[in-house]
Amino acid sequence: KQEVTQIPAALSVPEGENLVLNCSFTDSAIYNLQWFRQDPGKGLTSLLLIQSSQREQTSGRLNASLDKSSGRSTLYIAASQPGDSATYLCAVVRMGAQKLVFGQGTRLTINP
Amino acid sequence: GAVVSQHPSWVICKSGTSVKIECRSLDFQATTMFWYRQFPKQSLMLMATSNEGSKATYEQGVEKDKFLINHASLTLSTLTVTSAHPEDSSFYICSARPLAGGADTQYFGPGTRLTVL
Question: Which of A60, A87, B12, B75 has its CA 20 to 30 A from that of B93?
Answer without folding.
Answer: A60
